[in-house]
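stage 2 :: seqdesign
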């Protein structure tokens, strides 16, 4: 267990130790993160193409992903609604940002493009197999692991240079409360979903520990439990992001903790512009803190549960 945690957390830690002071270098790092995500998802699609009885396995994967998503979402929404009532945090008086850096449509299209990359990987894998290139299936998983290590190092740099000091994170009680509630309720949902998916309790917890970080959860779970469950983790976390884009505009003014928290780890990056646009500038530090904490929790929790 310790060796697996070390292998994954070491590049994250090494990246976190690197200060970046040049805007151009930071821009390259950000592009590298995006490119790494697409490469990992493409390789995941190629790995899925190597499955026997592909159509049956894809159908099973879709059904399991929806069951897992339903269980976790029900727990998340109930817990975050309770937290919203308890905190009484409303953004009604917060100024709305009219010129936020993205629109809901652009964000949704960006998420759907990730599904297209996985589908493209499946088609590419099938084409290579037809041409006699079955050997790629043997290496796709290993290549994805190497790209993951690069991705983690780059994400470590992003976290270090996000402008969010550790003291500010620890003192933001709203962000801490939202992240804690989302994490605990997600794990409860994973436990409830495990028997429905014919999985052990620790496997259900591992699948629930992505908190929206689909590129990481897909490769970590897929490496230990196979490409089908890796796909389940991916689609569960990606569907979270898609639903978050719908919930944020509807709920953030009256139930800010629910709207911010449901995005999980994505609230510090992909869903942050939509949070900023509809909730105002006061939501931004809360969302960044919540997403930051969940991003730090996801890798060790996933690996810990997979090792049990």
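stage 2 :: out
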């Amino acid at each position: 267990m310790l060796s697996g945690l070390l292998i994954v957390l070491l590049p994250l830690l090494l990246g976190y130790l690197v200060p970046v002071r040049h805007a151009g270098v930071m821009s390259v790092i950000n592009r590298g993160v995006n490119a790494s995500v697409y490469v990992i998802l493409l390789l995941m699609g190629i790995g899925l193409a190597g499955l026997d009885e592909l159509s049956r396995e894809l159908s099973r994967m879709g059904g399991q992903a929806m069951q897992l998503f339903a269980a976790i979402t029900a727990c998340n929404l109930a817990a975050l609604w309770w937290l919203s009532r308890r905190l009484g945090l409303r953004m009604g008086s917060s100024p709305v940002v009219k010129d936020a850096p993205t629109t809901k449509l652009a964000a949704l299209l960006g998420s759907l493009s990730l599904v297209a990359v996985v589908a493209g990987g499946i088609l590419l894998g099938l084409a290579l197999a037809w041409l006699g290139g079955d050997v790629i299936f043997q290496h796709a998983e290993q290549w994805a692991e190497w790209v993951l290590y690069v991705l983690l190092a780059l994400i470590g740099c992003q976290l270090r240079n996000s402008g969010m000091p550790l003291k500010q994170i620890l003192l933001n009680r709203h962000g801490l409360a939202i992240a804690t509630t989302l994490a605990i309720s997600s794990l409860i949902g994973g436990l409830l979903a495990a028997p429905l998916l014919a999985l052990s309790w620790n496997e259900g917890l591992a699948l629930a520990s992505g908190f929206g970080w689909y590129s990481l959860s897909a490769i970590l779970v897929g490496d230990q439990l196979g490409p089908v469950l890796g796909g389940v983790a991916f689609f569960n976390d990606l569907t979270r992001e898609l639903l978050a884009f719908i919930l944020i505009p509807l709920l953030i003014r009256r139930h800010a903790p629910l709207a911010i928290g449901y995005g999980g780890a994505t609230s510090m990056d992909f869903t942050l512009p939509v949070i900023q646009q509809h909730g105002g500038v006061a939501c931004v530090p809360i969302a960044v803190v919540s997403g930051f904490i969940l991003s730090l929790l996801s890798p060790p929790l996933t690996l810990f549960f997979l090792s049990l």
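stage 3 :: structure notes
- The chain has a mean pLDDT of 82.
- The chain has 13 helices and no strands.
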